[in-house]
Amino acid sequence: MLNMNSIHITAIDLNLLLVFDTLMAERSVTRTAERLGITQPAVSHALARLRNLLGDRLFVRTPKTMLPTPAAEALAPDIRAALQRIESVLSQRNDFSPATSARRFTLGLSDYASVVVLPRLLEVLKQESPNVSVVVKNTGHGIGHAQLDNGEVEVVVGNFSAPPAHLEETVLFKEDFVCAGRAGHPALKRSLTLNRYLSLEHIQVSTSGAPHGYVDRVLAAQHKERKVAVTVGHFLMAPLLAETTDLIATEPRRLLVPLAKQFSLAIHRPPFTIPTFNVTMAWHSRHSTEAAHAWFRSRVVKCLEEKSKGT
Questions:
Q1: In 3D, which of 133, 130, 136, 134 has the Cα closest to residue 114?
Q2: Which pLDDT value is given to residue 209?
Q3: Predicted TM-score (pTM) of this structure
Q4: pLDDT, position 124
């Protein structure tokens, strides 16, 4: 009778149990080696280790087969069950069914990215995975990668610097700019010239509170300067203030154009060239092969592809 109490788990090599289980099924060193993709000497060596470990011959060679001993037959059901359990545990990480999952995803978005992403994303999730929920946390250019590192969020969408090697990203779309002011604004009844643009007062959006931003740097490169009357920390303040004042907002197209009717805004093309910027989705590489995470990322991509086609 085997004395298993004397065997410490550190002495067990999982490959030994795989050899044992396969030998029980095949009753042949040759077929076991072929099935496991190893050499016959490797099978024989594993069997020798098992015999030494368990204090039993386990399999006896006969002219036609490898015959298990009574001890091996007694062990076989438990070893098979243990291997199946291990397989089950390891496969659970990729066992994801959108239709039945109640997974909660944590998404980092600025209010700009929320306007662009959330409405269509929630429609897609409702159609494909009605029990999935989303928690949205505010993010920005300077904090998105840190939020991924500390596990505060699982995915961020926005404009970020190049990620470090342990983070992954994909470009979702290129964003451009429009100018917006209240409908009936006297300066916007005609085409917007650069001189008229510079004569007006402007809204600047900066999540960090910087009084000058991307648009101002573009103008400075041309030795021009606009008058920023107010700097706000939230993108959604731009259309609100543009509607209720004579201030002009120069902000991303996907923010201002969809809200133009709701906020009674007149939309104009900027009177100077503003380079586009990339909006990306980033995530930690530890999530790259997780089935649920990969599915969620694909839904973000899908809803933005659909939105781009309709823009």
A1: 136
A2: 86
A3: 0.70
A4: 93
